[in-house]
Specification:
The chain has a nine-stranded mixed β-sheet with strand order 4-3-5-2-6-1-7-8-9, sandwiched between helices. By secondary structure, the protein is α/β, with parallel strands linked by helices. It folds into two domains: 219 residues, P-loop containing nucleotide triphosphate hydrolases (Rossmann fold), CATH 3.40.50; 126 residues. The chain starts with 7 loop residues before the first helix and ends in a 5-residue tail after the last helix.
Amino acid sequence: MSNERYSRSETTALCELASLLGKSDFVLEYASALLLASLAGRRVAVVGIVKRGKSTLINVLIGAEVTPVGMLPETAAVLAFGTSGTERISAHGFDESLRRRALPGSARRFRGSVKREGRRKIVAGVLDCKSPLPPGLWLIDTPGSMESEVGKRSVGVSGVPKSLGQLIDAVVVVVGIPGFSSSDLKLTREIQQLHIGIPTFVVVKALDSSVSMSDLVEYSKLYLGDLSAVTFLQTDDDQSALGLLVDRLASLPNPRHGQDAARTSDGVCQSLVDDLETCMVEQLRNRLIMVPRGIRRRLPEQLRTALKANNPRSLRKKEKTLRKAAESKARLEYRAGLKKWKDQESVLKSAVYNAEQELKHSKVALKKNVPLLGCSYWVIFALSFILFPVGPVVWAIYGFLKETDLEKESEARAPSLESKVTRSENVLRDAIARLENHKTRRPLK
């Protein structure tokens, strides 16, 4: 895969935008994905803490000084070395603007082109040369992880590109004695967790001639005994383990990606651009940046669209639209709530009215619970004087007995009627309380 997906001006604008957003790892990640997509075969990443001898190990395996070494950390790019099986020596890379550059094929000139202080900064490069490595086996040198970063930041941004996890087939972690620290062990375990399923090998190197093979054996048993990784020991006098390492790497199963390497690399590049877009949108919304017009007009369509939708004017318009929508929604909710409240109020008022009527009827019934003989009795009593004196006497006796019965019936009905009045008063009191409580919950505008 090449970087032809975007034009040169678009690619340059992406790099400038990444710098503006503080995404310093974008260029290295993107260039690494582009580079690894062009490698057909097994890709083995060589990683480790700075100054543990990664580049020196690769030079020994290649049989030439192909990668820069020195007192200070020299590897600032992702560099791939190997042979595709052709007789022709070729080299190319990507600079800090993600432009593809032809690089010299000789080991010395290639090394000078990719060193940290080179004339043109190269962030990713590949040298297809004659080497003792089996054809199709590529060793990938990576910028070293700083010890202070291993404990604070993820492996993906402390030297080792995250894209390697999707585009490599094995990892070789280089540690050195003396100089081995807890950061080496932490880095190894973090890489195993980050790249689950990818074979991991550990090379323990003697960083000076005072370290013997017995020292390396003792160190590896003491510090690396619990690692689920194959360990290889190397001193200046005994490098036989490196041949075994190459054999193990050459015998790895077929590459995980095969013909899908370009598609996988394209997915990695797209995810990097998506991350860049997310970061840009977040900073725009927080008013942290303003993208210059010179960058805006050269960005890819995806980012121009996102930028247009999140510029200050669009954000103000969107905020106004959202505010109006929220106000309209609040009004509708208020009206619906008020209607519901009024409906409940009508029900409660009806309940109060019914309770009042029931109480009124109960009191009337209690008031009427009086033993009266009625008008008909007194009319007949008056007519009984026709049969005087027997008629009035007999009817008076009947009236006395009748009134006694009526008093008994009235006394029997009185408790029930009084209880009904009490219940009606309680029902009315509860209905009034519910109505008063309901009035306190009237919706507010």
